[in-house]
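Many introductory courses stop at the sequence. We go one step further.
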Amino acid sequence: QVRLVESGGGLVQAGGSLRLSCAASGRTFSFYRMGWFRQAPGKEREFVAAVRWSGTSIYYADSVKGRFTVSRDNAKNTVYLQMNSLKSEDTAIYYCAARGGSYSARYYSTDEYDYWGQGTQVTVSS
């Protein structure tokens, strides 16, 4: 049984920072890649960032590149998303996801992830 639990969301002013955490439990040794996605009201869930469990490949959406940093601590089975210079358009529910098994080039697609957390709300006030 795999479980992903996000934390660290909250209310922050524009220009501020937050760090999200995703604690994984269960068959974490089978993870290939971890992803962060977000969903704003009335919009589809969109890709934010992804990192291989080994840490060798990292990807970002253009909208967050240079402001967000994804990292992982395998000893703690935890993935982080450091968000700086936050904007009002970053307001959304942020979800952590895990892909088990093998390589997939579609790191940006929700279909390529097998496990999901419950999400954490991030609200940026302008």
